[in-house]
Each structure stands twice: as structure tokens, then as C-alpha cells.
Amino acid sequence: IASVSSVMVIRAKNPVHSVFFFILVFFNTSGLLVLLGLDFFATIFLVVYVGAIAVLFLFVVLMLDIKIAEIHENLLRHLPVGGIIGVLFLLEIFFLVDNDYIPILPTKLSTTYLTYTVYAEKIQSWTNLETLGNLLYTTYFVLFLVYSLILLVAMIGAIVQKTMHKTTRVKRQDVFRRN
């Protein structure tokens, strides 16, 4: 589903549909991360990408006045060049990946398989969230607090800078003159 959705991000005629397929790719990738046992990364992936970036893309696409007819007439003109570049890109990826560690083409008669070992279970029986929480709130507590304060000040500064911008079209109250 993630692969088909990523192809549909490119193939969708409507930019809004493309953004929705993009969000679907994020959800499916997050599901794959959950299946790998990376619960925290899956949650952060959803919060950061779907909650912030994809919604930002959606608002930008909705605010732009895109003419879909102009997109259709230019599509076929660039198709041969794009196809050649795409085939070259796929060949490069194929030759990069086909090495001794990741064999695609059978080069030897005896095939060796790579095995994935979960070292976290061998060290301690904590989950990823417990390990991260233990590190953040014990060893790196001061750094975590300083970083959160820096982000808070940056967020307040961005809000103040956006709202206190002086323009001629906005009527503002002068508190001292009013009192």
C-alpha cells in the first residue's frame, strides 16, 4: 500500500489528491515501523510528518490557484526525457544495491542470508519507550529541559513576530492613549 500510494503521489492529477496520497504513505510507513518494533519512531513520524508537514503542504496547495488543464498539456511533452532519467536512475540504484552485502543477482552457488538480530532484547528487557524515557529523564534531564525552554522561547518569538507586525490595514489599540 505504501508503494502504490507513493506512485499515486506522482501520478495524481489533482494536487490535493497527491497530498492525501502523501499522508497515506506516511501512515503506512508508520505502520511498518510499528511492525518492526519501533513504536516511538512511528509515533514521532506521524506527529511530525502528518501533523505538521503534510498539513502544511495541504494548506499551501489549497491556497495556490493551480490550473489543472495547464498541468495536463505539459505532461506529455516532458514524458520521454523523464522516462529516460527514471530508467537511468533505476539502473544506478540497481548497480549500487547489487553488491556482496545485498545480492540481487546470484553470483555464487552458495547463497548466504543476512540475519537480523535484536540486540535490545539481549541487553535488557526494556522497550524502546522505556529506554528513551529513562535516558531523557535521568542522564540528559538538564539538556532536555534547556532544549524545551529554547523551543518555547522560539515559539513565543515567532508568535509575537507574526502578531505584532505593523501594517497600515490593521487597526490597533493604543492602550496608554485609551486609558
TrEMBL record:
<comment type="similarity">
    <text>Belongs to the complex I subunit 6 family.</text>
</comment>
<keyword id="KW-0496">Mitochondrion</keyword>
<keyword id="KW-0472">Membrane</keyword>
<keyword id="KW-0679">Respiratory chain</keyword>
<keyword id="KW-1133">Transmembrane helix</keyword>
<dbReference type="GO" id="GO:0008137">
    <property type="term" value="F:NADH dehydrogenase (ubiquinone) activity"/>
</dbReference>
<dbReference type="Pfam" id="PF00499">
    <property type="entry name" value="Oxidored_q3"/>
</dbReference>
<feature type="transmembrane region" description="Helical">
    <location>
        <begin position="44"/>
        <end position="64"/>
    </location>
</feature>
<feature type="transmembrane region" description="Helical">
    <location>
        <begin position="18"/>
        <end position="38"/>
    </location>
</feature>
<feature type="transmembrane region" description="Helical">
    <location>
        <begin position="76"/>
        <end position="97"/>
    </location>
</feature>
<dbReference type="InterPro" id="IPR001457">
    <property type="entry name" value="NADH_UbQ/plastoQ_OxRdtase_su6"/>
</dbReference>
<protein>
    <recommendedName>
        <fullName>NADH-ubiquinone oxidoreductase chain 6</fullName>
        <ecNumber>7.1.1.2</ecNumber>
    </recommendedName>
</protein>
<comment type="function">
    <text>Core subunit of the mitochondrial membrane respiratory chain NADH dehydrogenase (Complex I) which catalyzes electron transfer from NADH through the respiratory chain, using ubiquinone as an electron acceptor. Essential for the catalytic activity and assembly of complex I.</text>
</comment>
<keyword id="KW-0812">Transmembrane</keyword>
<feature type="transmembrane region" description="Helical">
    <location>
        <begin position="135"/>
        <end position="160"/>
    </location>
</feature>
<keyword id="KW-0249">Electron transport</keyword>
<dbReference type="InterPro" id="IPR042106">
    <property type="entry name" value="Nuo/plastoQ_OxRdtase_6_NuoJ"/>
</dbReference>
<keyword id="KW-0520">NAD</keyword>
<keyword id="KW-1278">Translocase</keyword>
<keyword id="KW-0830">Ubiquinone</keyword>
<comment type="function">
    <text>Core subunit of the mitochondrial membrane respiratory chain NADH dehydrogenase (Complex I) that is believed to belong to the minimal assembly required for catalysis. Complex I functions in the transfer of electrons from NADH to the respiratory chain. The immediate electron acceptor for the enzyme is believed to be ubiquinone.</text>
</comment>
<keyword id="KW-0813">Transport</keyword>
<dbReference type="GO" id="GO:0031966">
    <property type="term" value="C:mitochondrial membrane"/>
</dbReference>
